[in-house]
Amino acid sequence: MKMSDLTCPSCSASYEVAESISAKGNPGHAQCAICGAMLASWQDSKLRAYRLVLAPEHKYSSVPVPPSPGC
Ligand SMILES: [Zn+2]
User: Fold this and answer.
1) For residue 70, what pLDDT is reported?
2) 31 C-alpha vs ligand 1 centroid, how far in Å?
3) pLDDT (tens digit, 9 = 90+) per residue, 14-68?
4) For the chain, give me the number of helices (H) and strands (E)?
5) What is the dihedral of CA 51, 18, 14, 5, to 10 degrees?
6) Who is most buried in 15, 44, 59, 71, counting CB within 10 A?
7) How many angstroms is it from 55 CA to the middle of ligand 1?
8) What is the mean pLDDT of residues 4-16?
9) Is the Cβ–Cβ distance between 53 and 16 less than 8 Å?
10) CA torsion 10→37→48→15, rounded to 10°?
C-alpha cells in the first residue's frame, strides 16, 4: 500500500490517497467531495482510494486546535 497526499486544486481540500500495489482495481477517476473538481484519473488497473482528511473551511476557522494526544 502506497500512501500519498493530494490537495484539491480548486478548493484546497486535503486528501489522503491509498494506492494498492497488489490488489487489482479498475480504471477510473476521483472527484473532490467538496467542490466536485476532478482530482485524478487513471487508466491502469490499480486500486486507489481517496479519503478526505481536511475540509477547506477548517483551515480558516478560528476553532482552537486540541493538543496532540499521547504525551
Ligand atoms: Zn475541491
Assistant:
1) 73
2) 8
3) 999 999 888 888 999 999 999 999 999 999 898 999 999 988 775 555 666 777 7
4) 1, 5
5) 170
6) 15
7) 9
8) 95
9) yes
10) 30
Task: Give yes or no for a contact between 7 and 13, defined as CB atoms under 8 angstroms apart.
Answer: yes
For residue 49, what are the CA distances in angstroms to 6, 40, 65, 68? Answer: 12, 11, 27, 26
- What is residue 67's predicted lDDT score, i.e. its pLDDT? 77
pTM above 0.90, yes or no: no
* CA 18–ligand 1 middle distance (angstroms): 18
In the block, which residue shows the cell 476553532? Answer: 63
For ligand 1, the distance from its centroid to the CA atom of residue 65, given in whole angstroms, is: 23
Judge whether 52 and 33 are in contact, CB under 8 Å: yes
Sequence-distant (6+) residues with CB within 8 A of 59 are 12
Say how far apart CA 33 and CA 15 lie, in whole Å. Answer: 10
